Amino acid sequence: MNRTADVVRVKSRARESAPRYVAILQQAMQAHQSDELDTAERLYREVLDLHPAQPDALHYLGMLCHQRGRGDDAVELIRQALTITPTHPDAHNNLGNIHKECGRLADAEACYRLALAYGPEHYNAQSNLAVVLEAQERLDEAFEAYARLLEQVPQFAHGHYLLGLFLRNHAQHEEHIEQAIECFRSALRLDERNVRALESLGVALYMLGRHDEAIAVYRDWMTREPENPVPRHMLAACGGAEAPPRADDAYVRDVFDGFAESFDEQLLKNLDYRAPQLLADALAPRLSAPSRMLDVLDAGCGTGLCAPLLRPYARRLVGVDLSGGMVEKARRRGGYDALVVGELTAYLEDRPDAFDLVVSADTLVYFGALGTVAIAAHRALRRGGWLAFTVEALDGEDDRVELGVSGRYRHSAWHVRLALAGAGFAEVHLASDTLRKEGGQPVHGWVVLARTG
Question: CA 36 to CA 423: how far, in whole Å?
């Protein structure tokens, strides 16, 4: 056997294939950037057929799998890429992002620290590290990480915004809110299009009792963007205009489409976000043991945080949300049999006797009076079915609904009970609990279960 000739032939084939796989990889990346995911995946796999150890193809195919909700495949592919190029900071950062979204915070932290070890100026990894430290309630370390981020990139508007949220969410003194206000102002000075910073500035001013200044922020915003539903809604929340009977669909869609990519991150920062788990705990003793026998609706599914808690009960699990951006995140997370972009009340009204269980975690906070949506939910439930939801609590014994400065509605217990009774629910359970923390303070709410007759 002429081994030298064999080696020459192998090397010759490698030289011939190299230009081909490079061109295919470029085409795959272009398709990926254009959101043509089917084409991109096919082309990445063509590259790997030609060159199984091509690290960029492994890395980017891993990211694509993550986008499509195939988290295990994503982790494995990026890990393979890192065995070939172990000092690649972007790959470590992206692997950390997958762990973060899956709630594996310690694994995410380790990835971000490796990204920074190999790329000390990788400010996205620095930002992500700060987030997961905060999520683990290591607040002193998180503050230092945010401060280091702004030392690295002082012109990074989003970094100032993130630090402002940190200070506001964990405020222990008025001084912390004042500092948050300065951070939001810095973010706006660096990027006047940062509407999240503008909205947060108004909320922070209101928290300090500077109501006129908050109202002025939203009125100025309305002047500049008269068609934008967000400042219009927030102006009402601050008392600068009459409160609408419920949040406008355009407001909800705009807010949550804008938050879709960072929504879970923001919930991690509003530490102790508990609504999905509270509902699961309340339902557990009232449902049969998890056996995948129920038709379940996640009403206002958002990014799909409820899916892992509901899946064990569900023969069929459907999610509906007004925000297409949130639904896409839920699709990536996986766990649903169907996902729908649509308005909740209309969706329920169109599906009589379709579900055994309807769960709504922190969605009805964007509804004022609950009567109409309660009737729609009753219509969509079968006999003996359960409606489970959370709303923010309003003290008092009378029938009241109030729009808060957060832009969310609060409901009295009496209003909740009257709405459910009027809708025809035969059995109602209502318990008080803490749904999350905000501005350093607990947000009290009602955990509500109602059963059809």
Answer: 45
Residues 231 and 270 in one domain: no
Please name the residue ranges forming H helices in 238-354.
249-259, 263-269, 275-283, 307-310, 324-333, 344-349
**CATH code (residue 45):** 1.25.40.10
Domain containing 171 equals 157-242
Give the CA distances from residue 154 to residues 141, 195, 318, in Å, rounded to whole numbers and listed in that order. 19, 19, 44
Domain count, the chain: 3
What one-character-per-residue DSSP string does 317-335 give?
A: EEEEES-HHHHHHHHHH--
Contact between 446 and 390 under an 8 Å Cβ cutoff? The reply is yes
Return the DSSP state at 311: G
145 occurs within a structural domain: no
Phi, psi of 303 (to 5 degrees): -85, 5
Please write the tens of the pLDDT for every residue from 250-292. Answer: 999 988 887 656 655 665 555 578 999 999 999 999 998 888 9
Residues 341 and 438 in one domain: yes
